[in-house]
Amino acid sequence: MIEFRSHRKLIVRGVESPHPVPLATRLCAFIRQEIATLDPGCFTMVMATGIVSNAFFLQGPRGLSDALFLVNIFAYISLNLCTLVRIYLFPRKVWADLVDPQRVFSSSQSSRARTFWAWGSTSVI
Q1: pLDDT tens, residue by residue, 60-88
Q2: 70 near 56, Cβ under 8 Å?
Q3: Distances in Å between the alpha carbon of 41 and those of 8, 38, 92, 107?
């Protein structure tokens, strides 16, 4: 087990290393931790960005639509790569996400959906 107590100290199996931790090692540990805890709800950002991009495309500001579409492509490819790496490195965590509906449909997402439904059910036009 490797853990970082500060930006400079590395702890391996309870023993603190006297050597400073290189930036690349800290960055790799950070990325690995972020991939391990990747939330399945991250893909909602891709969907929302695509919806807003389509809205701008249909309403006129084509430059803004194209910019959001590029952000959408980058986010989609990045999240897919992170998910594939997560499947390879952390298959048990991925399986835990697949079999636990509370993880995918969390209460915060439910409350957002209820808020959206309440706004969508009233006529604003």
Answers
A1: 888 999 999 999 999 999 999 999 999 99
A2: no
A3: 33, 9, 18, 12
Buried/exposed 100-119: b ≥16 CB within 10 Å, e otherwise:
eeeeeeeeeeeeeeeeeeee
Q: Are residues 44 and 77 in the same domain?
A: yes
pTM value surpassing 0.70: no
The answer to whether the beta carbons of residues 28 and 4 sit under 8 Å apart is no
Polymer length of the chain? 125
Looking at the fold, whether 30 and 48 belong to one and the same domain comes out as no
Q: Which amino acid is at 64?
A: L
Q: Which amino acid is at 80?
A: N
Residue 12 CB partners (closer than 8 Å, separation 6+): 1, 2
Task: State which residues form the domain around 79.
Answer: 39-91
